[in-house]
């Protein structure tokens, strides 16, 4: 989100998801269970491959 300077509202508009769902997806437990379809929406919004998006989240979880 910081790379593209998106807030929740902008990310919701780009992905077509509700803001409450995006806030919920910020939780590592919930993100780990996201479907490939939802992950694809986030990957398209950030212009990243899905594998890199998943690897980034796994790295963030390992730092906790």
Would you give an account of this structure?
This protein is mostly helical and 64 residues long. It has one domain. It is 69% helix and 0% strand. The radius of gyration is 11 Å and the shape is globular. The two termini are 19 Å apart. The model has no long low-confidence stretch (mean pLDDT 87).
Question: What is the first-to-last residue Cα distance?
Answer: 19 Å
Structural class, from helix and strand content?
Answer: mainly alpha
Provide the domain count.
1
What is the string of SSEs from the N terminus onward?
HHHHH
Please provide the count of β strands.
0
Helical amount: 55-70%
| Major beta-sheet overview | none
Shape: globular
- Share of β-strand residues: under 5%
State the helix count. 5
Rounded to the nearest angstrom, the radius of gyration is 11 Å
Average pLDDT level: 87
In short:
This protein has 64 residues and is mainly α.
Topology:
Layout: H1 8-15, H2 19-25, H3 28-31, H4 36-46, H5 50-63
Please describe the structure with a list of short key phrases separated by commas or semicolons.
5 helices; 69% helix
């Amino acid at each position: 989100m910081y790379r593209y300077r998106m807030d929740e509202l902008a990310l919701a508009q780009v992905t077509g998801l509700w803001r409450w769902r995006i806030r919920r997806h910020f939780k590592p437990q919930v993100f780990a269970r996201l479907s490939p379809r939802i992950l694809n929406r986030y990957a398209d919004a950030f212009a990243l491959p899905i594998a890199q998006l998943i690897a980034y989240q796994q790295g963030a979880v390992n730092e906790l």
